[in-house]
Design brief:
By secondary structure, this protein is of the alpha+beta class. It is built from 27 helices and 22 strands. The strands form seven sheets. Strands 1-3-2-4-5 form a five-stranded mixed sheet, with helices on both faces. Strands 13, 14, 15 and 16 form a four-stranded antiparallel sheet that branches. A four-stranded mixed sheet has the order 20-19-21-22. The N and C termini lie far apart (68 Å).
């Protein structure tokens, strides 16, 4: 190159990621993570400054305003480094490696993630947010840049040595598996109770959730563990913590009481003030936990939360042709100041409530119900929190409870309409295969669980349509049928990035869920296609594990696994659960159950030692240990009576193995699945006497065929009493 700097311009205007494009006007000569940028670092023998974030990240915006938009900082970065920007939502593999190093070295992590790398990509200095100049004990970003430059030029051997050590540590944490599998069998269902007990120990019994202080994060995988352990053991304390946490999340500031949907987390112990970004994955995983709570308790409020959240997703995070967008920003423009402020779209003052509602009683009711006060709970304004019961309000205002509910709902609708006129948060409109898989699976489950009563059919069809439309959107745009490969990201017609394990696993589970909800064999075909790529690209038979990145993908300094649950479920855990579910439909050449079992064997010690960190793998181990609950339905459609009977019962490892009524019709399905013979889950299970027929099996023990769903459930109840793993 003829320029005096390693990079001569900012290349992010060529990218589709909204987060990267936010930085396209910075004076820093940002590069995307690609071979050109890495080769530039090698050619000039200069370190890489890697900055990782995402579009809804508050402190990412702060660091941009303070440093990356600053000419002085840009000059130093451009002269001495190759600056690279990464959207963690597009490249979770890159993020996983360097976040792991940050956590190992500093004991903490977060975004923006700041890392300095050798030209070979090996890290030697890491941190998160840095102010431009030192303050409150934090080193200044400019000082760090100067120190790193001096170390690179004056103490290169020490830098290289540290980079090797840190890279080896990351490999040990992310890539390695036991030299010899420590267990001759996978963990038993005991790990489920161990994880539930660990959840009890970390539970906040006063305010709900987990941890004795803020911030409070939703922990949907822990909630699924508690629900299943309560079902398996009958222990009330497991269900009590589940209910306390669901109630706290539904009542507090984590939930958007005006427009539905969940924010990312709350900054305090009592769930009052959220960090206001809304992520697709939260609004998929949290409602799934509420569906579980609804089935276990029958609490209609839980069903309402799910319905309101899915309505929010359909309204604000759905592409007009069906796929789901990624995030809504925490910040939006404050109309009074013209500045972008966190929470501006969502918060209220009492005067604003009274101005919108006009009726003084209605305004006072809403303020009392949702704790809207003059002092406020967030920078002088209020994030609504539901603090007063309808019965208490009815007594205080001398009104009928039904009247109170109607007034509150009318007030909410008016406030929602007024809020719609405010400047909106930015929306990250990239469509990610894996995150869509999470949301599709929740919609499909809602179609099976909800939909009772007068409007049940319409509600059920709406959720099934959301699921199927999104699945088809992702399949049409991100799945290459000829190559049998999945891409991760779609944005405005642009498709990029080879799919990771989470993309295949989450989407395979979603396709399976759509098949269960609709009985369409094509969705089962797609689920099996995705599962076979998991076997081909992510399964390492020698190591006995599933890696996060495909074997044919880009070579990084280490090849990570994703075994633990983080903000999304463990990719390996969901893959194992899904492979176990699909094994009953596979042909004899597939090894789905063997792969799933081996992964659990390989990591048995890790799962048993730290069950709570590996909640989804514990759920998978329980599914394997308890045996599948197969519900074969031989019918053209799932009768409403059957649907409602199963919807009202919590059956955590239920698999609806729907099939046509006759073997003649089943032949077309076998052709679509490329099967010579019917798998055992369907074989010999035609509809009897021309009526829909039900076959229920638990761990290869089956009920007699029946037309009466209550008979099947009675048989199942008897089996569960005699076969409890605890």
């Amino acid at each position: 190159m003829t320029t005096s700097t390693p990079t001569d311009r900012n290349r992010l205007d060529e990218e589709e990621s909204p987060y990267l494009r936010q930085h396209a006007d910075n004076p820093v000569n940002w590069q995307p993570w690609d071979e050109q940028a890495l080769e530039t670092a090698r050619e000039h023998d200069v370190p890489i400054f890697l900055s990782i974030g995402y579009s809804a990240c508050h402190w990412c915006h702060v660091m941009e305003d303070e440093s990356f938009a600053d000419e002085q900082v840009a000059e130093v970065l451009n002269e001495n480094f190759v600056p690279i920007k990464v959207d963690r939502e597009e490249r979770p593999d890159v993020d996983s490696i360097y976040m792991t190093v940050c956590q190992l070295v500093t004991g903490r992590g977060g975004w923006p993630l700041s890392a300095w790398l050798t030209p070979e990509g090996k890290p030697f200095y890491v941190g998160t947010y840095f102010p431009k100049k030192a303050k409150r004990g934090q080193p200044g970003f400019l000082d760090i840049l100067e120190n790193v430059t001096n170390s690179w030029e004056g103490d290169r051997d020490e830098v290289e040595n540290r980079a090797e050590q840190w890279t080896d540590a990351a490999k040990d944490r992310l890539e390695e598996t036991p030299d010899a599998v420590s267990a001759s069998q996978p963990p038993s269902s005991d790990v489920l109770e161990a994880a539930a007990n660990a959840s009890l120990r970390s539970a906040d019994r006063q305010f709900g959730g987990f941890g004795s202080d803020g911030p409070k994060f939703p922990q949907p995988s822990r909630l699924r563990v508690l629900a299943r352990a309560a079902d398996r053991t009958g222990r009330d304390d497991f269900q009590d913590v589940l209910v306390e946490t669901l109630d706290a999340m539904a009542a507090g500031g984590l939930y958007d009481h005006v427009g539905g949907g969940f924010h990312r987390y709350c900054v305090d112990r009592d769930w009052t003030v959220p960090h206001f970004e809304k992520m697709l994955y939260d609004n998929a995983a949290i409602p799934r936990a509420f569906l579980v709570g609804y089935q276990q308790t029958g609490d209609e409020r839980y069903a309402e939360v799910v319905a309101e959240t899915l309505e929010f997703v359909e309204r604000e995070l759905t592409h007009e042709e069906g796929g789901f967008f990624s995030t809504l920003d925490a910040q939006s423009e404050d109309p009074d100041t013209g500045e972008r402020e966190e929470g501006a779209f969502y918060v209220w003052t009492p005067d604003e409530i009274h101005d919108v509602l006009e009726n003084e009683t209605d305004a006072d009711l809403f303020c009392d119900r949702y704790d809207i006060t003059e002092s406020g709970n967030f920078e002088g304004s209020n994030q609504p929190n539901r603090v007063a019961s309808v019965s208490d309000l009815a007594a205080e205002y001398d009104l009928d409870a039904t009247d109170v509910r109607e007034r509150l709902e009318s007030a909410r609708e008016k406030l929602f309409a007024a809020r719609e006129q405010r400047p909106r948060p930015n929306r990250d409109e990239k469509v990610l295969a894996g995150w869509n898989g999470l949301m599709i699976a929740t919609c499909a489950e809602a179609a099976l669980v909800l939909g009772g009563g007068e409007d049940g059919d319409e509600e059920r069809d709406e959720y099934a349509t959301m699921a199927v439309d999104a699945l088809e959107f992702v399949r049409d745009r991100l799945w290459d049928e000829d190559e049998q490969r999945l891409s991760r990201r779609y944005k405005d017609g642009d498709v990029a990035i080879d799919g990771y394990l989470e993309d295949y696993a989450f989407l395979a589970r979603a396709a399976l869920g759509c098949y269960e909800a609709t009985g369409e064999v094509d969705q089962l075909v797609f689920a099996l296609d995705l599962a076979r790529v998991i076997e081909d690209e992510f399964w390492d038979a020698d190591r006995g594990t599933l890696y996060f990145t495909p074997e044919s993908g880009e070579s990084l300094v280490t090849r990570p696994q994703e075994l633990g649950d983080q903000s999304t479920p463990s990719a390996a855990g969901v893959a194992v659960e899904t492979l176990l579910a699909l094994d009953g439909f596979a042909d004899r050449g597939d090894e789905f159950e063997e792969i799933a079992t081996t992964v659990l064997e390989t990591h048995a010690n890790r799962i048993e030692t730290n069950s709570l960190e590996h909640a989804t793998l514990c759920l998978a181990a329980d599914r394997l240990g308890s045996g599948a609950l197969e519900i074969t339905v031989a019918a053209d459609d799932l009768p409403d009576e059957w649907r409602e009977a199963f919807a009202s019962r919590y059956l955590p490892d239920r698999l609806f193995a729907r099939r046509p009524a006759t073997d003649d019709e089943l032949a077309d399905w076998l052709t679509a699945l490329d099967l010579a013979d019917a798998p055992p889950i369907w074989a010999g299970r035609e509809a009897r006497d021309g009526e829909p027929t039900l076959y229920v099996c638990r761990d290869r023990t089956c009920s007699p065929p029946t037309h009466d769903v209550e008979d099947a459930l009675e048989w199942l109840a008897g089996e569960e009493q005699t076969e409890s793993p605890f």
